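Record type: ASSEMBLY
Status: queued
Input:
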Amino acid sequence: MILEKKKTFNDFVASKGLRSTRQRDIILDIFLSTHQHISVEELYLKIKSSNAGIGHATVYRTLKLFAEAGLAREILLHDGQTRYEHVVAGEHHDHLVCTRCNSIVEFENETIEALQKEIATRHGFQIGSHKLEIYGLCANCRT
Amino acid sequence: MILEKKKTFNDFVASKGLRSTRQRDIILDIFLSTHQHISVEELYLKIKSSNAGIGHATVYRTLKLFAEAGLAREILLHDGQTRYEHVVAGEHHDHLVCTRCNSIVEFENETIEALQKEIATRHGFQIGSHKLEIYGLCANCRT
DNA sequence: CTTGCTGCAAACAGTTTGCAGAACT
DNA sequence: AGTTCTGCAAACTGTTTGCAGCAAG
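Status: finished
Output:
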C-alpha cells in the first residue's frame, strides 16, 4: 500500500501540472515510513538526519501538498505544532490523548459518527470533517 | 450569574494569595459581557477601545487566570488563535464550525458523552476533558 | 514597605514568503 | 528554454517573558 500511495501522489502531481522532484520523493518515503501523528519538525529532523540539505520550508510545503493529494491529514493537538497523520481511504478515527505522556490511542466509533451526522443535519450543517479528541490520563499514567 | 462569576474569581484570587487589580476587574467585566468564543486579540481590542492602557500581555495572563479559576475554557479552533469561552458549571457542549463564515453553533449530546466514557474506559483512560468539533458548511453558506 | 502586577518591548516558536539559483519536463 | 521547485533567510503571527516602575495588601 505504500506503492499505492506513491502512485496516488504521482497521479496528483501529474494531474496538477506539478513536478516530481527528488525532495518530494524523499519526504514522501520518510513520511510513509513514520508512525502516526508526526509533527513537521519531527519529520524535518528525520529527513535531515538521513538526507542532509532539505529545507524547513520544503517540508512544510510538501506536507501541504500531501494533504491536498489526500494522503495526509493535518491534525492539531494541544501542543502548538501542526501534525500530520496518514490517511487511509474511507477510514476515520479519533484520538484519546494522554495529557501526561502525550501518547495517543486511536479509536473508531460508528455510533458517534452517526450521531454527528444527525446533529449536523438537525442544524442544517453539511459536514466536511470532524475531530473528536478525548484528553485524560492513559492507563500507564493513571497510577 | 455575572456577580456569581465575579465572586468565584475573587475567591480564587484570595485563596491563591493573588491580588485583585483594576485590570483584572476590567478584563473580567468585558469578558463576561462578550458572547462565546472570543479570541484574545478580539478581547484585547474591545478592552483597548473602552479602557485605553491595558497591555496585550496582561490580557493573555489574565485569561489564563480565568481558566485556572474555572470560569473560562480555552478552545482551539482551526484559525490559529486561542479562544476562550465561558464555563457554565456542569455543562458541556461541542461545536459545529462553519468553515466558510466561521460561525459556530453549539450543541450537546448525552449519548455521545456516554459513548466517550465507554471508549475511554475500554482503553484504560481516565477522561479529563474532551473536544468534539464538526467542520462543514452552515445552513447559510451551503447555498 | 513588601511583593505581586502591569506595560512595554524584546524574545520566541511555528509557519510562511520572497527571491535567486537549481532542477524538472 | 521555460517554469516550477528549492534553500535560505527574512518576515510574520500569536504568545510569552524580563524587567523597571506601579500598586495592592
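Annotation: The radius of gyration of chain B is 17 Å.
Annotation: The first strand of chain B starts at residue 38 and ends at 39.
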